[in-house]
Every structure is written in structure tokens, then in C-alpha cells.
Amino acid sequence: MIYLFLAEGFEEIEALAVVDILRRAQLNVETVSITDNQVVFGAHGIPVIAERILPAIDFDDAEMIVLPGGLPGATNLDACEDLRAGIKQLYDEGKPLAAICAAPQVYGHMGLLKGLKATCYPGVESELEGATYTGTLVEKDGQFITGKGPAAAFEFGYAIVTLFCGEEKANALREGMIYNEIA
């Protein structure tokens, strides 16, 4: 199971576009609220009903963790100790971790990006402790996939599809979603 975590103030497009793309690829992905409340309000006031709540998930079932950005969403994710414990578990198991926009700071603050290339929203790069900031739309290095911001949401989603299903499947999704006509 791929878990995408939602915190108050998350960037809606970074969460929902990614979930949509992963489901089109027939990947098992669920949204998870970091609180006991399933309704989570995004950075632009859009309420989203998470499928699960953090206290009810088992990180042993996780194949990947995905963190959308947005403020204060990324800050709220960073402050969630139960989420940080789950991230550490997956990191220690060598499983993939992804974050976009301001959310790569969570991994940076945990010291997990040291010696790796990463990208994030401009102005957040100082929070990627020990990483080399590239400024690219999407960066894949080691266990991590990082994305720059809202405009990178599709490429970020396709990068996750590529990891699990291969480049051919990601390219078929790009074609089917008419993405190649704008890129």
C-alpha cells in the first residue's frame, strides 16, 4: 500500500493529482489524515475526506510514503511524531519515500537526505539538510523522489508510477492523459 498523508493546509493539487495518477496506474494508494479527523482542509480551503486516519494504519503494510507540500501542511507533517516514526521505519527498510513542494523538509529535518540530490519549492532548499538542491521539477536519488511544487505534480506522480510499474506504463499514462501535448 502507498500511503499519501494529509495535514491541515496541504497543497490540494499535489495530493489529488498524485492519487489520481497512481490509481490510473492501478497502484494501491490511500489517503491518510495525520489526525483523528478524516476531513482535512487543504491550503485553499478545499475539504478532502481521507480514507484512513494515522492511528489506524500499520506501517508494516506500507510500500511507500508520499508527502504533499503546501503550508502549513508540510509544517504540520513535520511536527507529527507518529508519521516521523513511520518514515524512519520505511527508511530503515529501504522502501521508497516521496515528497513534493515544501514537504521534502520533513526528510531533510530528519537527516535522511544527506549526500543525496533533492528538489523542493524555492525558498525551502535550506531545510534539505545535507542534500544537494537541484531545482529540477522532479529528482530521484536513492530511496527518494522529490518534486519542486504544484506544477511538478504530474511529473512527480509519473515518477512514482515509473518506480513501481516502469517507464512504459508512465509513458502510456502521459499519452492517455494528453500530458505530452503540453510538455
Q: Can you describe this structure?
A:
By secondary structure, this protein is of the alpha/beta class. The protein has helices at residues 12-24, 73-78, 81-92, 104-109, 153-165, 167-176, and strands spanning 2-6, 29-33, 39-41, 47-49, 52-53, 64-67, 97-100, 117-118, 132-133, 138-141, 144-147. It is 33% helix and 21% strand. α1 (12-24) packs parallel to α5 (153-165). The longest helix is centred in the N-terminal third of the chain and has 13 residues, at 12-24. The chain is globular. The model has no long low-confidence stretch (mean pLDDT 97).
What best-fitting shape do the alpha-carbon axes yield? globular
- State the major sheet: 7 strands, mixed
The mean pLDDT is 97
Find the count of extended strands (DSSP E, 2+ residues).
11
Low-confidence stretches: none
- Taking the alpha carbons of the first and last residues, their distance comes to 30 Å
Percentage of residues in strands: 15-25%
Order of helices and strands: EHEEEEEHHEHEEEEHH
Largest sheet, order of strands side by side?
Answer: 5-2-1-6-7-11-10
Q: Compute the gyration radius: what is it?
A: 15 Å
Total helices: the number is: 6
- Helix fraction, binned, reads 25-40%
Structural classification: alpha/beta
What would you say about this model in short?
With 183 residues, the protein is of the alpha/beta class.
